[in-house]
Amino acid sequence: MKRIASFEVNHNILEKGMYTSRIDGDAVTYDIRMRRPNKEDVISNAAIHTIEHLFATFVRNSEFSDKIIYFGPMGCRTGFYFIVRDSVTPDKAIKLTYDAFKFISQYEGDIPGVSEIECGNFREHSLEGAKLEAKNFYPVLENYTVEMLKYKQ
Ligand SMILES: [Zn+2]
Which of 77, 84, 85, 109 is most buried, taking the most CB atoms under 10 A from its CB? Predict the structure, then answer.
């Protein structure tokens, strides 16, 4: 089988940030890298799960709601995939991601979608964990430029 594009990324030199992973027609996939792979502890599953709920809720309530295709965690637990229509330009995608993580870092109240009927693992959540992760990450995207979306070779 062919080696898929995401395995072509050199994980040894990867820094925290947001990167363009691939473009398929009008669908743009961004990699949101919150950990330096294999150098730092991965994100707890409970925190990842809560980030997933809060990020998805935020972006689907934003002005870009109908242009959001997908947001979900990487299996290695070092970050997330975020897929949007290309009408969300790269600068807007950065700003939206920054705003979403800032929102999560300050979130108070019930986690959206956390009930047995709405969620596949409703017991495994950590709002405190999600807030801490978001607080540590959103400053990475402050002053982030479109040029920085490109993976280093
Ligand atoms: Zn869930």
Answer: 84
Domain hosting 34: range is 5-143
Query: At 24, is the secondary structure helix, strand, or coil?
Result: strand
Model pLDDT for residues 133-147, shown as the tens digit of each residue = 999 999 999 999 999
What distance in angstroms lies between residue 24's CA and the mean position of ligand 1's atoms?
A: 27
Task: Mark the ranges of the chain whose per-residue pLDDT is less than 50.
Answer: none
Ligand 1 center–CA 102 separation, angstroms: 20
CA of 142 to the centre of ligand 1 (A): 28
Q: Is residue 148 part of a domain?
A: no
Provide the whole-model pTM.
0.94
From the number of C-beta atoms within 10 Å of its C-beta (0-12, 13-18, 19+), residue 43 rates as buried
